[in-house]
Design the sequence.
């Protein structure tokens, strides 16, 4: 049995999670997979009520009692500092040491490509975003705050171990899927020391995979090339911040945030699965959000749990819905979140 902690969170989180869980339940019956869900109420509502975000003892319990976390989104205009979201989401990424942020960028229907002449054959790459270090450690200082002489500093952390393990994960993923190309994205022309470390480690790990063509690019050039010639890329490995930015770009190339899934993974340990999109407060409560990113996120979770047949069946069902409809507004349709969820459910049942 796989024990799944469900955290709907804020905004559209609960709406898309509801559909995602219904789909997973139908799929589990059809594929004879045993999934047990338990719900947790972390998010803005609870934070505003009692000030708690993610209690340390709960984290212990999650670690002990669960195999995966199925997470909607956090972020609420009533918490402008975004404090609770940082505590909950970034807290779990860091404290559970979920060092791989795997974000597949795969187009399922030519009609949703924003690029002229680029379709499903050209748009299929995966980003390995380092998920525990970089600028996301948010270590910094403000001097002379609020004055004209104010200085704000932020430190980017790149540990040898942290860099090596994400690069290894990218090469191992490529190798296990018979992919031929891995590309490093950095800014080592400016951050000569810090990103020089990425280049050195990348070259060393690449040597262990002679069958894979390894290339390194500056992230600005890569951003341009992803729009110009996305077919060149199969696996991209990069730091936390660049990965954040590149995967919104990747999502836009593949039909938008309504279709982009991600896994926050530590192989062999409790891992967290969430769509790339946020809580989209302006859409919340309207039954208009696209639940397909949440469904694809379920497929990533099943793959992590070793249920590859169920994962493939779910991805195929989503691909069918993307091609045939019904579609939510973001994809040019008029269907509701629940109707699209129902369409996926019918196809997996
Ligand atoms: P967002 O992803 O919530 O929304 C960006 C745009 O995409 C909006 O126009 C939104 O309507 C649209 N969109 C997003 N998901 C959609 C869906 N499923 N269906 C249809 N349209 C969708 O990003 P944002 O507006 O920058 O951030 C809103 C809040 O979410 C902020 O508080 C932010 O910090 C938070 N956030 C959370 C996560 C997360 O929990 N993983 C990720 C990103 C942003
Ligand atoms: C993401 C989000 C988060 C990030 C925010 C909400 C902290 O944008 O998951 O991509 O920056 O990692
Ligand atoms: Mn992001």
Sequence:
């Amino acid at each position: 049995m796989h024990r799944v902690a469900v955290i709907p969170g804020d905004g559209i989180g609960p709406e898309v999670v509801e559909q995602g869980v219904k789909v997973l339940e139908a799929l589990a019956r059809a594929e004879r997979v045993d999934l047990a869900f338990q719900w947790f109420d972390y998010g803005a509502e609870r934070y505003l009520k009692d000030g708690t975000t993610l209690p340390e003892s709960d984290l212990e319990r999650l670690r002990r009692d669960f195999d995966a976390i199925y997470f909607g989104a956090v972020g609420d205009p009533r918490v402008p500092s975004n404090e609770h979201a940082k505590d909950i989401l970034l807290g779990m990424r860091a404290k559970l040491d979920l060092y791989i942020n795997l974000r597949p960028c795969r187009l399922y229907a030519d009609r949703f490509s924003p690029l002229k002449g680029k379709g499903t054959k050209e748009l299929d790459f995966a980003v390995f975003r380092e998920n525990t270090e970089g600028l996301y450690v948010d270590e910094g200082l403000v001097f002379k705050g609020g004055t004209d002489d104010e200085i704000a500093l932020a430190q980017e952390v790149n540990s040898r171990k942290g860099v090596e393990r994400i690069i290894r994960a990218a090469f191992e993923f490529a190798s296990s899927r018979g992919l031929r190309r891995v590309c490093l994205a950095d800014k080592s022309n400016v951050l000569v020391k810090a990103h020089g470390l990425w280049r050195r480690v990348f070259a060393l790990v690449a040597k262990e995979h002679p069958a894979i063509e390894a290339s390194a690019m500056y992230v600005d050039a890569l951003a341009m090339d992803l729009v110009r010639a996305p077919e060149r890329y199969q696996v991209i490995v990069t730091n936390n911040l660049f990965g954040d930015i590149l995967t919104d770009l990747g999502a836009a190339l593949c039909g938008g945030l309504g279709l982009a899934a991600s896994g926050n993974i530590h192989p062999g340990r409790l891992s967290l699965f969430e769509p790339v999109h946020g809580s989209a407060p302006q859409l919340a409560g309207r039954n208009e959000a696209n639940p397909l990113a949440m469904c694809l996120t379920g497929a990533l979770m099943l793959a992590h749990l070793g249920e590859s047949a169920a994962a493939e069946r779910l991805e195929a069902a989503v691909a069918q819905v993307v091609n045939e409809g019904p579609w939510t507004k973001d994809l040019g349709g008029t269907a509701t979140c629940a109707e699209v969820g129902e369409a996926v459910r019918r196809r997996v049942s």
Notes: The longest strand covers residues 134-143. Residues 85, 89-90, 244, 276, 278 surround 3-isopropylmalic acid (ligand 2) (CB under 6 Å). Residues 31 and 217 are 42 Å apart (CA to CA).
